[in-house]
């Protein structure tokens, strides 16, 4: 049987993360982000974890899409879960294309250059990264 990693249970005032609820009916998407053809919604995980984790709901807007070009993110972990549509990547060191479809998840190799080469016009995904704030750079 596993042993707890910390003494617990904890009272709410000593919790390791905050209680946060991001209600769908209150959803506010904005277009300030890495890609002009996307809208972003912060799901409150960065605030709840003191920046250790970030989670966004991202969706495509408009029909036009251009590949992102090769880039990498300065982070320790990067995951996506596709809610609707599909997205196709190329990763340095990986043969061929990697397409992620609705209902599928991808752990992207953190720090590895990649290029988003295609996506559906109805793409919606959840993105989880560690840490919440990170830099994006060209290789």
Helix-strand layout with pairing:
Elements: E1 38-42, H1 45-48, E2 54-60, E3 72-73, E4 77-84, E5 86-91, E6 98-101, E7 105-108, E8 114-119, E9 124-130, E10 136-137
Antiparallel strand pairs: 1-2, 2-9, 3-10, 4-7, 4-9, 5-6, 5-8
Describe this structure in words.
This protein is mostly beta strands and 139 residues long. It has a single domain, classed as Jelly Rolls, CATH 2.60.120.10. It has one helix and ten strands. The chain has a five-stranded antiparallel sheet with strand order 1-2-9-4-7. A hairpin with a 6-residue loop joins β5 and β6. The longest helix has 4 residues, at 45-48. The model has no long low-confidence stretch (mean pLDDT 93).
Keywords:
about 140 residues; mainly beta; Jelly Rolls; five-stranded antiparallel sheet; 1 helix; 10 strands; about 35% strand; globular
Number of helical runs? 1
CATH architecture: Sandwich
Name the shape in a single word: globular
Mean pLDDT: 93
Summarize the structure in short:
The chain is mostly beta strands. It contains one helix and ten strands.
């Amino acid at each position: 049987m596993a042993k707890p990693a910390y003494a617990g249970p904890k009272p709410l005032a000593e919790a390791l993360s905050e209680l946060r609820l991001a209600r769908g009916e209150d959803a506010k998407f904005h277009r300030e982000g890495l890609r002009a053809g996307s809208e972003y919604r912060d799901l409150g995980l960065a605030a709840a974890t003191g920046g250790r984790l970030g989670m966004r709901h991202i969706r495509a807007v408009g029909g036009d899409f251009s590949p992102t070009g090769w880039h990498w993110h300065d982070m320790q972990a990067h995951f996506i879960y596709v809610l609707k549509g599909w997205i196709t990547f190329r990763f340095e060191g990986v043969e061929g294309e990697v397409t992620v479809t609705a209902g599928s998840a991808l752990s992207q190799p953190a720090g590895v250059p990649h290029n988003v080469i295609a996506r559906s016009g109805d793409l919606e995904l959840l993105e989880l990264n560690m840490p919440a704030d990170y830099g994006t750079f060209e290789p």
